[in-house]
Amino acid sequence: MKIFRSPSYLTNTSILNMQAAATQHRKQFFPINNSFRHYLTEYHRAMELPVTYEDMLKYEDSFPLINKNGDDTLWQTLIYEQQFGRELYEGLKKTYVFLRSGGDESILSNLYIDRVDFCTFGNTKPMRVRVVNQYNDNHDYFYVKKADASRIYGLELEELLSPNAINFLVHQDTLIEEHIIGVPGDDFIRIYLPQPDLHSVRLAKEFIKFNERCFVRLLGDMRAYNYVVEVTPDFEESQYRVRAIDFDQQCYEGRRSLYLPQFFKNNLPVVKLCTELINVETSQQYQREERSLMRRRLRFALHRVQHLRACMCADQISSTEKMRQLRKELADMHNDYRFMLCHSMGEITFLNITITLGLEGKAAYYPEGDGA
Length: 372
What we know:
By secondary structure, the chain is an alpha+beta fold.
């Protein structure tokens, strides 16, 4: 019994091959153009900051970061020259204050930078900064990355279309992101899924809704390690929310199955749970509920969404080959020729939003010249 969206022409083998291909090729970076930078400034996402990603690369040495179990985390802790390191860490504290409290420097004296870690295996090769409050030893993290336009579009769509607020800043070609708290999806599946106190139906419901959100706004590559599960104790049993933490693949890939978390191999234990516990009618109900919430969010931020759409539709954030492949697959799935009139991933994304959310009367969401 299938309760998710299904590309019937795909086999399990082809899905696994697509995953392997996606792993082998690093994602192309796209610069932030003037129009999108103006949007980010207008909505207070862009500002002058004291540290850039290039500054962070000026380290002298590094050593492997080992976790509490003695395992190599594959992150490297960086060592900087003493004088440069003091200046850099002071800039990182100010950057954190801008991110968290809008620049209230009165709290700077409470903070210190414990360490900077470097991830060499990710697409963005992020820097992770650990900030500690010296009065109570409470710590927090934020990330410094090379700015990529498609990723930032993904962050904005997360803010506008999901139930999750997202906090980030852009300075020149540097992206500053907050740390999103939750249990990494692969750890959740391995550790929490087998536990007897898991509220399986609530988790299944949330995964179906997450699957729907990803497909509607075309956020791809939601393998288990690219999302987290928030667990909130309730007065009876825990509630769950699945949150994306990696937005690199915002309308970047050509295959539509890559925008459906259900088709990634390491999500199969959760998919199996969903198919065992949720029937087709109930799954469709959850999908309708999520689409209704997304429509409501669009109405609340209509002007901002239209501004983002104008930037995104005029921008190049994927290859022409991938764009043509995706519009063909979505045209076949929706049986809607208008996808073939799209000339950018932005146009494809907003047409997909229009159709799946039932916004047929909203001309602003169509490709140029194709409004109802």
